[in-house]
Specification:
2 helices; alpha+beta; about 70 residues; 3 strands
């Protein structure tokens, strides 16, 4: 991981350079989540995927609270 300070191993595992482009891939299925010209764009997309993946798992145990305003 030399040359990439501050980058996490988990993030690096899902970005591959294929045909001169950076591709975000699923670690388990190999599904492509996008092709990008720069590594920075690919990392941004990967952070979006991770954010929504964890958001879904966090909210599954919570119930939405509906607030009613006075009439």
């Amino acid at each position: 991981m030399r040359g990439w300070p501050g980058r996490k191993k988990g993030l690096m595992a899902m970005i591959r350079k294929i045909g001169g482009k950076y591709v975000v891939l699923s670690e388990t299925t190999g599904r492509r989540f996008g092709t990008y010209d720069t590594r920075a764009e690919a990392e941004r997309r990967l952070r979006q995927i991770e954010f929504f993946k964890h958001l879904r798992s966090r909210s599954s145990g919570r119930r939405a609270i509906r607030v009613q305003r006075g009439a």
